[in-house]
């Protein structure tokens, strides 16, 4: 069985980079992996979903009600994809909002909805990943902060993830991103 | 020296895996036109320094295919890459190519897009392969796509026939652990071990004249068609020997069996119990006799595939058993499949899946987040002005980022159709017609439409949105930019092309210069006949890399009357905060909103 991780967010937030880090970590550990990325039309500031199936050998898509974990860079996107979560799955979500443009529908009370959709409170980890990333040196590393938090629950070794961050992010941003990972990993879940 | 084959794995996108397969097969020549989900294949080949491959972005798919045919006729291993709708453009050479066949291995890679994620339709390229009598390989995983492309070159050379590889979006844009072949030379010390991966030397192409074969006049075509038909049987036998068609024999007597292909076969494999007989088909034409030996054993055959019911029709031909699929309403005719849909199909037909998913429904009534034009997009300002100046006009548009615009887009059918449909409308409807078309799309199929519009006295304004790139598909160079995929090239002038096509009114303007753009649009409105405006400003994604000094703007709250004009402009860098508009971090400093604000409330700050 694969460990199914759904990474969601808004185009441009770094969801593809996040899924690439997880995938490369599988290669380091000599494990199978298959993932699906959103490209083309969907990138231009739209809602983006990346499916990563650790130990997966079959289709790249995670079924609805089948995700072991949802990693989300934007809380409205967490809500949009929360039906993918298994009953006992874990949600790790940023709480910094990006309000969709020109929408006639009001931005919903996202945290409340997320918490209502999981059976136990500890299944929803909601944080201000941008603030943690700012402490590391750059708000843009919020995706790496979330990987840091997720690393406590992912079936992958910490050192493989760190190695992949070094490989995947541009060299001038390595230090900030390693710090972001570390702050995420040590972040206290309240 | 002793060679030992070792396998290394890389985390590759399906398209990168296909490019890697081409390199391992010793490819010499590659052409294509960008189109999601196919574009990364050509890009990967162009940035690879593992083998000296000739790579080009051609101006359209027909041109791409014919260039690659030239290379294949010279005996080189060649590919041509396009998306499914691109094959419509290339259909003319495609339909006759199997008659003449090829010398060097030739693989036509056509990517299909179920659910259309980034396309205008859900056509099935397997139909084209069938119509052209060209064998088609239909991969189920990125790894299989790589294995298939290597086999495709061999098959192509063996029978001197072009071969189609037809991956879908979920293969092209999936990433997986992919086996990359390397030969390790053992005798060297571990510190300077060398890997010989891919043959470096290039074949030398040479065209051998053969009038009976390369000249498709009726007298030759008659003979070549007969020979093509004779080849088919041998090709089917060859395909039978591949690992791409897998038959799982039944362990216990059952009444129902499942047939599937492509990525759908993965969904089926993940879900069906071991004791359900299953046939995965990955190559076309299908051996109907061999399929019949399988299907005759069961009362019902459930066929699960994406796009057209092609396997389903073949299964029907192979058996008198009941065939369940799209025609019976068991499998949807449109969209893409996934495990949840396949799960329901299996349950409905009495097969209990081995995996169970928790029942969940999406949260309803959420604000949508569709893709939009980026902040600082040069298309937005000119499209906004067209709708202001040509009020009540008809706006025919084309394929590109600009279809995301809320302004000035009334139609979008296929590449180049803005000018032609617009001219057609101008002969019927008295209103102003404004056609908008990107620079790459204009070079692709816009030019014949312009010639025709002039020739037949259409009354139309054509605005070429020249953002100096093919933006939507990932910023490939176009013929108007002085760059090709290999570097510098001759810069073709859109102005001169339009003048040579007979347009008398040809003006160029920077769409960020609002006042001049307005003036030129107004002038064009007063004139009749075919008029062309070239709205030229680089896509921000390109400009950003050129380190152009950025300007910063803010909204002066004292001057702002909350009229909402800036918000109507629709730039994602302007958002409503409480009840006042503010400029956010996405701002690129184009300054258009500052010119549009009638109260002068948007000011440059540095």
Automatic annotation (TrEMBL), chain A:
Transmembrane segments: none
One of the record's GO molecular function terms: oxidoreductase activity, acting on the aldehyde or oxo group of donors
Domain of life of the organism encoding this protein: Archaea
InterPro entries linked: IorB_Oxidoreductase (IPR052198), Pyrv/ketoisovalerate_OxRed_cat (IPR019752), Pyrv_flavodox_OxRed_cen (IPR002869)
One Pfam family it belongs to: POR
Keyword line: Oxidoreductase, Pyruvate
Keyword Nucleotide-binding found: no
Alphabetical list of SUPFAM superfamilies matching this protein: Pyruvate-ferredoxin oxidoreductase, PFOR, domain III
Domain Pyruvate/ketoisovalerate oxidoreductase catalytic: 11-185
This protein's name: Indolepyruvate ferredoxin oxidoreductase subunit beta
